[in-house]
Amino acid sequence: MNLVALSEEVIRLTKEVGEFIRAEAKSFSQDKIEYKGLNDLVSYVDKKAENKLVTGLSNLLPESGFITEEKTINKIGEVYNWIIDPLDGTTNFIHGIPTFAISIALKQHDKLVIGVVYEINRDECFSAVKGEGAYLNGNKIHVTKAEKIADTLLATGFPYYDFSLQKAYLGLLDELIQKTHGLRRIGSAAVDLAYVAAGRFDAFFEYNLHSWDVAAGILLVQEAGGEVVDFSGGDKSIEKRELLATNSKITAEMLEIVQKYFSV
Questions:
Q1: Cys-Cys crosslink for 155: which of 5, 71, 201, 212, Cβ 3.0 to 4.6 Å?
Q2: pLDDT of res. 241
Q3: CA-based Rg of the chain, rounded to a whole angstrom?
Q4: Nearest CA to 56 among 27, 19, 28?
């Protein structure tokens, strides 16, 4: 299979669906919000976007299965599975904050081989194919070269439904705020990871994330020269739902601090 050619078709499809989301954002009303759980929001836009993506990706790779946020399809493939978040940053979208993205990854058996994150309002498409590097709108990107966290800008996300680890998390934030250039909370893990890959952030960390939030971004970071680990330093970030993505140079220093607050 020509994964590079397939990724180009995925990018084309993603931009088409992104145009639909961008158009809907202009007239979206908050009375169309649905709740999947505590502070877990969804809209008809998420669902329609996912349907469009599933249809398009099925045409590109008929034998593939899907792991999707909105669960609009129930099909698991033997070899290939698409991992889709049709609108990462739904809360931003609903409140009119213009940072949200489509995230699509392709997994071959247990290996991520394609990752695409399309930040819709900035028309920035981040893409990666296993072994081929990472790109932003066709231009190669790379993680930062910072070697100590004192020189870094970090990204994270806040707990919004599971607050059991909030005290530990706030302690971690307190320490990192004092030791770095600062922390940012954009509201889209897919975008955060893409920004690490592009050298805008030096690292990103969060817990309670799902595979559709991070799969594409993980490959972006890895192909841009970075590193993605769980809080113990292992490679189970998706399975354990805890993730630290860095430029690889500051991983050890970040883990030392993270592990003060999170048992591993």
A1: 201
A2: 93
A3: 18
A4: 19
